[in-house]
Design brief:
- The chain contains 2 helices and 4 strands.
- The longest helix is centred in the N-terminal third of the chain and has 18 residues.
Length: 79
């Protein structure tokens, strides 16, 4: 199951807070993957890359073929 998070139009801090809430919520709800849509702009891409590389709930991630979004695999939630 995949969930999409669209960060378009947000400032970096707002986007990071929203992304954190979405990752936490998706993990708790049992989602296994998320698509983070950030576009090709430097600021949101940089924030997303840093966030996804450090968040402990993120198992792995990679940029999509078009480079405007990231495909994220979450750690398994063993409720």
């Amino acid at each position: 199951m995949e969930y999409a998070v669209d960060l378009h139009g947000m400032k970096a801090q707002e986007a990071e807070t929203y992304l954190q809430r979405c990752v936490d919520s998706c993990f708790c709800q049992g989602y296994t993957s998320i698509r983070v849509i950030c576009g090709h702009g430097f600021v949101l891409r940089s924030m997303a890359m840093e966030f996804l590389s450090k968040d402990p709930l993120v198992k792995n991630w990679s940029w999509s073929d078009d480079g405007g979004s990231a495909v994220v695999t979450l750690e398994e939630n063993h409720k």
